[in-house]
Every structure is written in structure tokens, then in C-alpha cells.
Amino acid sequence: MFKTLRYLMLLFLIISCSNNDGKMILTGHIKGLKKGTLFLQKIKDSSLVSIDSITINGSSDFSFIEPVLEPEIYYLYVRLENGILNDDRIAFFAEPKPITIYTTLDNFATDAKVSGSINQNKLEEYNKIITRYSDRNLELIKESFNSRKKGNDSLADRLDKSQKSILAKKYLATVSFALLNNDYEVAPYLMVSRVNDVKTSYLDSVYNQLTPNIKDSKYGNDLESLIQFRNKNKIN
User: Fold this and answer.
1) Domains plus CATH for the chain?
2) CA 236 to CA 234: how far, in whole Å?
């Protein structure tokens, strides 16, 4: 019954927006949420702002219709009437098309399943790759701390060098992923959000390989501005 209702709701939204290009039809379901407020958010002028909101009262389904000019990171934030969630914001790549998000209240961000966005699929692919480096980095930090605690400074120094090597590999993996996906907005996004302190030559390499429409995108322009700033201030 509930699946049928969600299907009908999505169908209605698609039909109502069929003659309007450039709109994201965001629908979804939050298991366990009965009362609260959902906020659709994005970054504007370096600040996170709410651009729309809906009140949840009984039904765990939600929907937003929002103009989206180009693929860009948006956020779904939940505020409860009583209580505070530590895991209360989902970041996702919005696109001007139907997108669905299914998650749970208990693990709002970590359980989120986003479908319908190509750039989101690419971002999740990247996250799976980079998790290996992040996990190993945390292991090395812990091992180094324990070694110093036991007075084994020589081992700790070797572990610190290994940690730096892992971080370098993580950066190179990000650059490589961006180069391989130069026709998606996720490529410049990763460069300006995940490795913006990498050498300027790497930023240049990725930017020069972006397709023309990606260079003209929001994150393509952000990457160009970052490179210009680094060059102007002679930051290698």
C-alpha cells in the first residue's frame, strides 16, 4: 500500500513537472521519522542556507521540487521536534531530474541511498576507492601513537613516513579519478573540495583535461579560480 502511494506521488510529480526543464524532483522515504522538519540546503556565498523545507507529521515520505541549473552538491537536513541527531545531514549531487533518497532516522546520513544522479554515482564510486586509503591512514595514526606511548620512537617515525606515503597515494588517486571522469562535474568538485591543497600543477592538469562544458560549470569555474589564486600568490 505504502509503495503504491509513493509510486503515485512520484508519478504525479513527474507529470506536473514534465513541461518544466531544469527542475529536480526530489522524493524519498525516511524510515522511523514521524515528526520533524526537512530542509533542502545548498552553499550560497560560502554559507550553508536553507532554500526549502517541509514539515513531516505522520508520513515518512517527502518531496521537493527545486530549480537546479546544473549538477551541484545539495544537502538534506532533518530537525526533530524533540531530540538531537548527530547524523542529521545528507550531502548529495543534485541534478535537474528525478532523484530519490531512502534512509533511516537512526542513521540518517550513513544509511542514505541516493539514485537518479549520475554525478552522485560517480562520487560514491570515488568514495569506495578512497576509503581504503583513509582506513589505512587511521590505522597508521593509531599504531604510531601506541608506539610513542611505549617509547618506541624509531618505529613511530617509520609509521609516520608510511602515513605520509598513504596520504600522497590518496591525493594521486583523487587526481587520477578526476582525470578519468573529466566529462562529469564531480571531477572539478573533487579537486576543489577534497584535494585543494595539492600541487598547482596537478590542479592545472585536471582543469586542462576537463571538457568545455565542465570547464564552464560551477565547479569548473571554482577550480579555475583556485588555480588563478595559487598562481597569483605563487603557491606551488
Assistant:
1) 2-116 (2.60.40.10), 121-232 (no CATH)
2) 6
